[in-house]
Specification:
192 residues, alpha+beta, Glutamine Phosphoribosylpyrophosphate, subunit 1, domain 1, four-stranded antiparallel β-sheet, three-stranded antiparallel β-sheet, globular
Amino acid sequence: MCRLIFISGKIDDSFKVEILKKFQRLAEDGEIPQGTEGGHKDGWGIVAYKKGQMILSAKKDTSAFVDPLFPKTIKKLGEKKTDAIIGHLRKASVGARSLKNTHPFIHGAYSFCQNGKIVNSEKISIKPKFRKLISGETDSERFFIYILQLLDEYEGSGAETIRGAIISAVNYVRNNFDFTALNMIFSDGNYI
């Protein structure tokens, strides 16, 4: 299972950096199900927003604990006065360790990361127009693309539309697939 973090609000920037340093430790020694190697070493990603705009996006398919880009990225975050930070540490369950399978997934202003596994996710009903957006092999990316597809079908915009699409997507998975968890962070910079 992956690890997710969301930081928002009027928090001192140095405290945000300290929180992310503690989050980084989970890449090395975060608890996971018994019988598998400890930590969340299969990649990391961070997205940051300010005034509704994505101002930083970084990810690698290496462990955040040993990757020199991770501390450089959190140092930048400490200097940018962000409104929202989303982070993900990957423990691969579906799809190889690769950059295209590393969260958060991004499409336009939207970012998404997930913890959990959707069994047989290749059967998620994604229309051809949206299938071309899939670049990796993960259940998480397919779930994200399905939410984007629902957003495209819904009238309107804003928090209610996003919430409606997410609720519909979760209900679709709950009714049609086995899964371990559907913990996620979805944002457009204005709504989380």
